[in-house]
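Our preliminary data section would be incomplete without showing what the modeling component actually yields. Below, a chain of 147 amino acids is followed by its predicted structure, encoded as C-alpha cells that our downstream tools consume directly.
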Amino acid sequence: MTKHNTVLETLREAGYRLTPQRVMVLQAIAESDRHLTAEAIHRRVTRLYPYVDIATVYRILQLLKRLHLVTEIDLGDSSARYEVAEPNKHHHMVCRECGGAYDLSPSYLEEFRALLVNEFGFEPDLEHFAIGGVCEQCTREYPAISQ
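Predicted structure:
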C-alpha cells in the first residue's frame, strides 16, 4: 500500500469523506519528490480540476495537518511547505540560498535533546525541526556566502 493510500484510509477511518478535492490535494503532495507550498499544490490540483480555489486547498491542508497526515515545514521564507507525514520522523536542513530541503535523521538530534533535558530540565518538541544554512552545492558555487 502506498503512502497516499495509507493516508486516504486513515482519513476515512477518522470519519472524513474522501472528497475529490481531498484526494487530489493528497495525491499532489504524495506524488511530488519535493516539499510543496500550498500554491504549488493548488496549481497541480487545478490542472485536473480547475474549480478548486486556494482557500479549499488551505482548509484541506489544515485538516490533514490536524490529523497528523501531513507535515508542515517552515523553511524560513514566507511560504510553508508540506509533505506526507512519515511514520519514521525526520527533520530538515534548509539552504537559505537555493531553498533546497534535505532530510535529516532524528538520530542527529538525540544528543541535543538529551542536553536540553539534562541541563535545563526542558523537554523539547522535536516532532519537526528545520535547520537553516547553506547546502554543499551553494557553498561550492558561492564560497563567499558560507563565511
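The first helix runs from residue 3 to 13. The helical segments are 3-13, 20-30, 38-48, 54-66, 110-120, 136-141. Preliminary results of this kind motivate Aim 1 of the renewal.
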